Amino acid sequence: MADTEANPAWLQHQEAAGAIVVASSGLAEREAEDTSEDEGSESEDDEIERDYPPGPICAEKCTLGGPGYTGGAAKSTVSFFVTAKDERGTRIREGGAYCVATVRPGNAARAAGADIVTASVKDNNDGTYTASYSVAARGDYEV
Question: Where in the sequence does UniProt note compositional bias of the Acidic residues kind (predicted)?
Answer without folding.
Answer: 31-49
